Amino acid sequence: MIVRRLLRSCLTSQFSEASSISTHDNLGEDRPQFPGSRSQWTEKLEFIQPDIYDGIPVYRVMNTKGQIIDQTQDPQLPEETVVKMYKVMTQLNSMDRIMYESQRQGRISFYMTNFGEEGTHIGSAAALNPKDLIFGQYREAGTLLWRGFSLDQFMNQCYGNCEDLGKGRQMPVHYGSKDLNFVTISSPLGTQMPQDDSTAYRSVDEVRYWDERDHPIARLKYYLVSKGWWDDAKEKAWKEQNKKEVLQAFARAEKKLKPNWTELFKDVYHEMPQHLR
Amino acid sequence: MKSKIMSKLLMLKSNPCSPMFIRLFSKSPQCMATHFKFQPETAHLDGETAKMNLFQAVNNALDIALAKDPSAVVFGEDVSFGGVFRCTIGLQEKYGKDRVFNTPLCEQGIAGFGIGLATTGATAIAEIQFGDYILPAFDQICNEAAKFRYRSGNLWECGKLTIRSPISAVGHGALYHSQSPEAFFSHCPGLRIVIPRSPIKAKGLLLSSIRTADPVLFFEPKVLYRSAVEEVPVQDYMLPLSKADIVAEGDDVTLVGWGTQVHVLKEVAEMAQEKLGVKCDVIDLVSILPWDKDTVFNSVKKTGRLLIAHEAPLTSGFGAEVAAAVQEACFLSLEAPIQRVCGFDTPFPHVFEPFYIPDKWRCFDAVNKLVRF
């Protein structure tokens, strides 16, 4: 249909007496006729700057003070669930701070923090069925923590010790768990240096704004406090317990031995081929 | 290169067996015919057979796999109507759109999707339309599929993935429809690479590849799709992976190749017998990764002379790996330097294809060098 229209308009303009170029086809539509397109014509040859378009709106339920803006969007989660969410988010944050320090001290070779993404990890994991397979990239530790991966299991993988489920094969943060339906993480691009974290792509001011005004942990805490489900005393106790547990798991993992050297050659194939024996 | 051809022309009188002599003065019209002669074999299996060419044998294997494994799916560009080489003809009608379906034009996506699918436990049979197009999927195949089991400490794996793709020269394919990419992937532990030489081999090897617990790259020599016809057993049968075949026997020279090249080498062995009185072991490697070193080593220890031939370019082609391994394991048995007759170190050309490929004349010339050393 469209092709016939185009052909018709081409032919009429070819044979018309006036040699003027018409921008209208026979049906008077002044738009490019690309199937599925709602584009416009322009006679200006210039690059489009990003600021002339408004972005796609960003969905939110809470404001920066943890208040539900539209009550119909409140998921009405029970206290137990939301408190668990808060605890897992803060536990992740705590683990991140300690593990990042340990990487700086050279005790582990590599670490990726999850700062600022605690909400997305825990929120996504909480919405999924425990049987759903998760294919994470390497800032997804919160989903594992939600599902019940222990601090010991995290640390064992970071140290690549004899109890690492991954058998010491990969760098830290490349977690995986068959029981928790979390497919082992890879680094498909493989060039991330320990120093290359998200702060490389954000200005200092932007990071500070997020930390002070928009942090998911802070926003959730405001919500919890407003519901009477959390307070300063609980916060203090939880912070201490958290830190203690993480440090203890850390110390345990550091002491364990590395896996047997024969693990270097196993699991390349289902059955070890002759040339590796 | 030019000076090589000139010096060969000058040597014509003294060496009537030289490839240039035979090519220029032979009466047969080389340019239109294929550079090889497919010789059908018989399957060593009891039971009914049917006349099938390579694409029909592949189609038959896929049919059996889909029939017997309810989790099996076949996908790739244009597979629904039957595929550009007809390998998937009739499958969507028989098994439905849920199990046989087209993908977008995205090799990286085809591989990535296949890996994810295989990880969940479904049998994923992907097709990359031409081996020349497999490179966008390289990261997925080598960094993900190959390493899945190893990196997860055997918690996860994608062994149920098989990627099929047509490869090698077809007479007019030029740069992007003629490549043999096996060497690139041979460098990646965790993959299996299988290349059939015939319909009988293709069906059995494809069924084994689909069912093996490792991800497999199954490369089909496209020039054989129609031209290779055999009586193929109709039953479900599997052939061993990682085992090379000795397709001709002799004590004087070892010839190693795979895919289309096996048929060239078979003819070279006949020429060597006729013109030089020399008998050759002709070995089809069958599997490039892991490769059957023992069969090759045993042969070279017997003959002392080795020729490896492949269409892929010489430098770092798989022949280099075979040559390095053989010289290390069989050094004292060697009577002459190992010869490699391969594609030249250029992209695969269009009109110059007859000069580019390691045809029987170039291979025969190399055999001559081996016996006269």
Automatic annotation (TrEMBL), chain A:
<comment type="function">
    <text>The branched-chain alpha-keto dehydrogenase complex catalyzes the overall conversion of alpha-keto acids to acyl-CoA and CO(2). It contains multiple copies of three enzymatic components: branched-chain alpha-keto acid decarboxylase (E1), lipoamide acyltransferase (E2) and lipoamide dehydrogenase (E3).</text>
</comment>
<dbReference type="GO" id="GO:0003863">
    <property type="term" value="F:branched-chain 2-oxo acid dehydrogenase activity"/>
</dbReference>
<dbReference type="GO" id="GO:0009083">
    <property type="term" value="P:branched-chain amino acid catabolic process"/>
</dbReference>
<keyword id="KW-0786">Thiamine pyrophosphate</keyword>
<feature type="domain" description="Dehydrogenase E1 component">
    <location>
        <begin position="195"/>
        <end position="260"/>
    </location>
</feature>
<dbReference type="InterPro" id="IPR001017">
    <property type="entry name" value="DH_E1"/>
</dbReference>
<protein>
    <recommendedName>
        <fullName>2-oxoisovalerate dehydrogenase subunit alpha</fullName>
        <ecNumber>1.2.4.4</ecNumber>
    </recommendedName>
</protein>
<keyword id="KW-0809">Transit peptide</keyword>
<comment type="similarity">
    <text>Belongs to the BCKDHA family.</text>
</comment>
<feature type="domain" description="Dehydrogenase E1 component">
    <location>
        <begin position="86"/>
        <end position="194"/>
    </location>
</feature>
<dbReference type="InterPro" id="IPR029061">
    <property type="entry name" value="THDP-binding"/>
</dbReference>
<keyword id="KW-0560">Oxidoreductase</keyword>
<dbReference type="InterPro" id="IPR050771">
    <property type="entry name" value="Alpha-ketoacid_DH_E1_comp"/>
</dbReference>
<dbReference type="Pfam" id="PF00676">
    <property type="entry name" value="E1_dh"/>
</dbReference>
Automatic annotation (TrEMBL), chain B:
<comment type="function">
    <text>Together with BCKDHA forms the heterotetrameric E1 subunit of the mitochondrial branched-chain alpha-ketoacid dehydrogenase (BCKD) complex. The BCKD complex catalyzes the multi-step oxidative decarboxylation of alpha-ketoacids derived from the branched-chain amino-acids valine, leucine and isoleucine producing CO2 and acyl-CoA which is subsequently utilized to produce energy. The E1 subunit catalyzes the first step with the decarboxylation of the alpha-ketoacid forming an enzyme-product intermediate.</text>
</comment>
<dbReference type="GO" id="GO:0005759">
    <property type="term" value="C:mitochondrial matrix"/>
</dbReference>
<dbReference type="Pfam" id="PF02780">
    <property type="entry name" value="Transketolase_C"/>
</dbReference>
<dbReference type="InterPro" id="IPR033248">
    <property type="entry name" value="Transketolase_C"/>
</dbReference>
<dbReference type="InterPro" id="IPR005475">
    <property type="entry name" value="Transketolase-like_Pyr-bd"/>
</dbReference>
<dbReference type="Pfam" id="PF02779">
    <property type="entry name" value="Transket_pyr"/>
</dbReference>
<keyword id="KW-0496">Mitochondrion</keyword>
<comment type="subunit">
    <text>Heterotetramer of 2 alpha/BCKDHA and 2 beta chains/BCKDHB that forms the branched-chain alpha-keto acid decarboxylase (E1) component of the BCKD complex. The branched-chain alpha-ketoacid dehydrogenase is a large complex composed of three major building blocks E1, E2 and E3. It is organized around E2, a 24-meric cubic core composed of DBT, to which are associated 6 to 12 copies of E1, and approximately 6 copies of the dehydrogenase E3, a DLD dimer.</text>
</comment>
<dbReference type="InterPro" id="IPR009014">
    <property type="entry name" value="Transketo_C/PFOR_II"/>
</dbReference>
<feature type="domain" description="Transketolase-like pyrimidine-binding">
    <location>
        <begin position="52"/>
        <end position="227"/>
    </location>
</feature>
<dbReference type="GO" id="GO:0009083">
    <property type="term" value="P:branched-chain amino acid catabolic process"/>
</dbReference>
<dbReference type="InterPro" id="IPR029061">
    <property type="entry name" value="THDP-binding"/>
</dbReference>
<dbReference type="GO" id="GO:0003863">
    <property type="term" value="F:branched-chain 2-oxo acid dehydrogenase activity"/>
</dbReference>
<protein>
    <recommendedName>
        <fullName>2-oxoisovalerate dehydrogenase subunit beta, mitochondrial</fullName>
        <ecNumber>1.2.4.4</ecNumber>
    </recommendedName>
</protein>
<keyword id="KW-0809">Transit peptide</keyword>
<dbReference type="GO" id="GO:0007584">
    <property type="term" value="P:response to nutrient"/>
</dbReference>
<keyword id="KW-0560">Oxidoreductase</keyword>
